[in-house]
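ok so i was messing around last nite and threw this chain in just to see what happens. nothing serious, just curious
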Amino acid sequence: MADLKPPRVNGSERDTLHALLQYQRDSLVRKITGVDTEAARRSAVASGTTLLWLVKHLARAEILWLVIRFGGLDADLPDDVVRSDDTVASVIEGYRAASARADAVALTASLDDQCRNNPDDEPVNLRWVLAHMLEETARHAGHADILRELIDETTGR
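result:
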């Protein structure tokens, strides 16, 4: 797998946040692409974390944070339970759909707009939500790095 470096963005704060988030999303997808579904559902770590679970978990986080909490929209919240009919292709498709839906909300709002549905009652704006999604996605992409290396010794971003 090629070691792709993060994009250098000399644009607005929004452009930079979105470019880095998309880079991490794409990195996660590259980590699971080409892995046999059975290998992607097995865990090699004590926590039980799998590649399929990581992708499903982040699809859930995209919908929860950007569509439901920030956007205040009524949406079905996907779960992150790995089911017997989940495949590498189906979880990637679900993740990409969740990311596209999240982007449709985020890219039309101001970074200073506040969450509309925040159960913690602590005010957070879109800037914070995007930064949170960036760190959450990067964290789990790092987990995927380790799992992929344990599966077939493939490395790279």
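not much to say yet. Helices lie at 13-32, 37-41, 51-70, 88-106, 126-152.
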